[in-house]
Structure formats: structure tokens, C-alpha cells
Amino acid sequence: MNKGIYIATMEEDSGKSLISLGLMQTLLGKTDKVGYFRPIIDDFPEGQKDNHIETILSHFDIEIPYEKAYGVTRKELVDKRNEGKAGEIIDVIIQKYKDLEEQFNFVLVEGTDFSVKGNVFEFDTNVTVAKNLGLPTIIISSGKGKSQQELVDALNFAYSSFNNRDVKVIGVVANKIQEENIEKVKVDLDKFFPKEVEVSIVPMINTLLHPTIKEIVEELDGRVLFGETHLNNQTGSFGVGAMQLRNYITKLKENSLVITPGDRADIILGALQAHISANYPPISGIILTGGLIPEDSILKLIEGLSQIVPIVSVKGGTFNVTNQIGSIKSQIYKDSKQKIMTSLAVSDKYLNLDSLTEKLFNFQPKALTPKMFQYSLYKRAQQSRKRIVLPEGTDERILIATMRLIALDIVDITLLGNIDKIKNKIADLGLNIDLSKVSVIDPVHSDKYEDYSETFYELRKHKNVNMDMARDMMADVSYFGTMMIHKGDADGMVSGAAHTTQHTIRPALQFIKTKPGVSVVSSVFFMCLEDRVSVFGDCAINPNPNAAELAEIAISSAESSKAFGIEPKIAMLSYSSGTSGKGEDVDRVREATEIVRSKRPDLKIEGPIQYDAAVDATVGKSKLPDSEVAGQASVLIFPDLNTGNNTYKAVQRETGALAIGPMLQGLNKPVNDLSRGCTVDDVFNTVIITAIQAQGI
């Protein structure tokens, strides 16, 4: 079930606070625990806070500490981008969002404010965040200052941008539209957007555009003379009191803001009298210009009145002050009760909130993004702490990965090797590894050495293994590490940084053995591409599988895919698609596909199929238009090791994709093999997936 919604805009002053308030109220009417999150906020001086966060948390009484209600500041984002580490920002945002998702039934996520003009990265950042959080999106654009065509084009562009990145847009809102243009805008938008996208038109609400007295005081650095308790009064129209009083009071309207020089006692007293008169509308406040203060006798008279509106003295001249007030872009603050209630009423009237929330609750993300996939790995590993043995304890990459794993504190690590050599290597590398948090075992000097040797002898004596041979085997770190798993002293093993695949897997085949019903040990890589995670198998173990073995690899890979949160759609790859190709190789793939269909009719599978038809929607539709898999395959099964190994490495190097694995499939307990060209990240990620496998997933 979907647990979030992303509200995005494409410009400043779009009025998205109105949408957030209305949607939050509707969500709270449908589920009792709704959280609020802003991935990126502006930078504020010390002591100041983001008013969007304060308004939502305060008005709806949501118990979230301020620091947990946002991801990063704009400065943090820019700094990381300049360092080439923008991905770290996404990691932080995902972590904080997921923390809230665990606490609440639903989370409303509000995008950035576009407060920095000319920031070409901001729109793309919102798309990236929505994509990585896997959230459906509502897009808002303001009609203020735009022609009708410009507004429609802007929303079309935004929708296409999100949609092309596989972000589901469930609604678009054209905000601040003149009343007389509402129907025309609705007709134009309905022509473009599909029916499943909710189109809403919100008219210009003047009371939401006008600032409160408090905003004017802050903008003009005003001095409050009277009415400090009423600073949240909402202003309406404003005008300068420069004419005679008898003419000026006829110009007053509901919540008018009176702007007049501070020495115009007649205008000041007349406006206050009109405020309490049943024959004139109430005013919101009085701004006294020129830095002039009324005489003491006038101040005393005002002080004795039964009703006083805010009276504020400012230093600027009347003309400049009036222009400044007219240019204030009013916001909704936690104390702006009148604006909040207006926003709720407007959103209830003009937004199809029930339809939008129904779409939210029924939404299912299309694909798991690489960042979300990696985050899910860490969270799964944390669920049940496992013990992972690393036989190559003196390898630099193993030690650096160990340091990172200790810092995360999600697995228990055992390093195998000579203790002094390991300590010296750590010192040479200058690593900060606390060995009190790591188990270091020298196999020959271990108190388990004899017991392990005897166990190996009992297991292999039918193969003419004697005790001397058993002891020799247990002196080997790969055999010792595998025996730790067999005896229950470790939950999984990762090796291969300095050993061959055969050296790593042979002990596992000898006494860990394969799962019941499994005859083929195979492997998969989780390929973290730019916008999705694909499962590649088998790219590491089986050179030339026959049709039955290929079918078993496909079924095992589908199960691995499902276990790690990726819906399996299996593509059995070949050099032709459908029925067009002939030859022994393509016939073997075709036969393997039919075996899978007969054994597992529940699985979605297509084969033979070419790589481009498997992953590209346009090509897939043209070659296999009726396929459930073509163009959207998530599990790609290669016909042989030569093809698979070269393809995964080509994709990895040419696209910059992160390849996590190989992860071995089919063993009773997890043993995973690294490439001798592996990186620290490879070691780190393989340990994480091994820990997850050990949980019995």
C-alpha cells in the first residue's frame, strides 16, 4: 500500500500551501496518523524556522520534532552537489522520510519553494526526490502573470517531465486563475491530460494574496504603537489617506489597510471611528508613514478607545511604503488563523480531494529505484543482526569495507587470518578499526580447529579423506569459514577478493550443499541503473546451462527478485525475439521458457527475447505487442556465462550502474563470491545482501 504523496510546483508563490492544508485535512479524516515532511528547505538565520513546517505541525497538532520534519537545507544540497556527492543528499532524504513512514499511516511530502530565482536544478531535484521516494505526485502551477497558453504549456511540461521519469502524476492544479477564465482553462487542460489525472482549477483568492499586519511589520521593520495582539489581522485592499476625511472614509472597504502620514490625526481618528461604526466596514490596521508619531494628546485619545486595530509607524515615505506593501508576497504562518481557515474552505470547494485520496491509497509504485533499493537493503539487514565471516582478512578492500560496516553497526564481522598480519595491515592503511568490535580468528590457532577438522573428516571420509587431510583443509580460510557456517558459528560468508570462484564455492558444495529440489547453484547481480533495479542472472557460475538448468536459474532468480522487493518479470534473452529465430541456441532458450511456464505458471515470463525488446517499451511493443514482459522486464536471464558476464560488465562500465553481487542462489546457507577485481563498495554491498539471505528471506 502506498503511504505518501508528493506535492510539487515549478515556480515560487504557486500557492501550494493551500493544497497541502486541504489535503492534510482530508487525509486526517480518512486515517488517524498523518505525518508531514519537506525534503529540502531554505536556509534560515539561527532561531528562525520553515513556516510551512511550523504551520502544518501546529495547526494539525502533529507530533514531529522540527528537525525530523525536513531532509536537508538548500545550502547542504548545493555544497554536496558542488562536491559531486549529490547522491548522499538523496540517501539522507530517503532515510528521514522512511523514519516518518514507519511512525505514520501516511506522509504528506511538500516540495521546494523555488525561492532562489534562476535555479535550473530545482525542478529536476523535485522530480528526482519524488522518484526515489516512489511517491505519486500532484503538480501545482500558478496562473498569476501568465497567459492561458503559458499556464497550459507549463503544466504539460511538468507532467511530461515527471511521467518520463516514471513518477506517477495523479493530479494537476491550476491555481490563482481569474474567475472568468476558469472554464476555458479547464477545457484546455482536459484536452491534454488523461482521465486518470485529476484536474483542478482554483480561482484567485484575494484574501490569501494580501499580507497580514505582522508580515508588513516584518517587511518594513515597523514599530507597533497599538494593537500588538491583533497583528495577525488579514489586510484587504489598501489605500493612502491623503484626501480630506469626509472623502476618504467613503473609500473604506472590508479589512482595508489605511496608509497615511503619521501627522494626519484626522485620518487616523476618523478611520478608527469608522472601524467601530455600524455604518462602515471594519479596517485591518493603520500604517503611519514618514517616521512621524501622533502628538501625545492624540495618542492618549487612541489609547482610551474601546476597540483598537494595529497602528504601526514606519520610516519610509508614503509612496515608497505603499509600493513596498503592494510587493509583499504573503505566506501562511501558524498564527494566520484566518488564512488557514480560508485555505481549507477553498481547497474543500475547488479540489477533488476524495478522488485524489482514493488514487493515493490505491497507488502502487512501478519500480524500485536504486537509492530506495539500497536503503531497503540496510533496513532489512538491521531487522535481524547476522554474523558474516570474511576469510580474506588482510585484503585492503575487505578491511576498508569492514570499517564501514562497523560504523553502520548492522552486522557482526569475523575476519580470518593471522592476527598480527591483520593488525599490521590496518596500521599500514591508517584505518580506524576498533578490533574489539570485530572477531579475528587465525584458523590453525583457533580453539575450534580440531572440532572443525573432525567434522570435516566425518563428512568427507567416504571420499577417502583422512584426519591429516581434514586438518590441512581446515587450515584453509575458505574451508574454515564455510565450516563456521555449517557449525552455526557464522550465518554467512563472503569471499573471492583474493580467491577464485571455485575456491570459494567448492567447500560450500561439499558440506553446505544445495536446497531441496535445487540442482543448480547459480548467481544474480542486482544492477542499480539510473532509474530502476534489474536482476541479471546467471553472470558468474554456469558456463553453458542446458534448457532445464536455464529454467531453474530463471525460477531461482525470480524468487530472489521477489524476496528483495522487485516484482519479477522474466526475460529469457537470446539473439531473436518471439518465433522468428531458428538455431540450437535460440531453441534452448525457447525450451527453457516453456519449462518455466509449465513448472511455475504464476510467473510472468517471455522468451526468447532480445535485450532491447526486454527493457525498452517502444521496441518491446513493436516486437511483442501482447507481452506482459516486453519493454518492462525486471529479471534478465542470459543464455550462457560468456554473454551474461560480458553484458553486466559492459552495462556497469558504460552507464555507471552499481552492480551488487554476485549473490549465489540454491545453497542451504549463504556463501557469496566476490570478483578478484571487486571494489570496497562491492564487498560492502555483498556483505549486506548475505546478511539478508541469512535471515531466511
UniProtKB/TrEMBL annotation:
- Tell me a GO biological process for this protein: acetyl-CoA biosynthetic process
Q: What is its main location?
A: cytoplasm
**Pathway of action:** Metabolic intermediate biosynthesis; acetyl-CoA biosynthesis; acetyl-CoA from acetate: step 2/2
Q: Where is the Phosphate acetyl/butaryl transferase domain?
A: 372-691
One GO MF term: phosphate acetyltransferase activity
Q: Which EC number(s) does UniProt give?
A: 2.3.1.8
A Gene Ontology cellular component where this protein is annotated is: cytoplasm
- Output the InterPro entries linked to this UniProt entry: DRTGG, P-Actrans_bac, P-loop_NTPase, P_AcTrfase, P_AcTrfase_dom1, P_AcTrfase_dom2, Phos_Acetyltrans/Butyryltrans, PTA_PTB
Q: Which keywords accompany this UniProt record?
A: Acyltransferase, Cytoplasm, Transferase
Which reaction(s) does its UniProt entry say it catalyses? acetyl-CoA + phosphate = acetyl phosphate + CoA
Could you confirm whether the keyword Cytoplasm appears in this record? yes
**Where does this protein reside within or beyond the cell?**
Cytoplasm
Q: Which residues form the DRTGG domain?
A: 215-325
CDD domains xrefs? DTBS (cd03109)
Comment on protein domains: The N-terminal region seems to be important for proper quaternary structure. The C-terminal region contains the substrate-binding site.
Assembly behavior: Homohexamer.
Q: Give the UniProt family note.
A: In the N-terminal section; belongs to the CobB/CobQ family. In the C-terminal section; belongs to the phosphate acetyltransferase and butyryltransferase family.
Q: What does the protein in this record do? A: Involved in acetate metabolism.
State the protein's name. Answer: Phosphate acetyltransferase
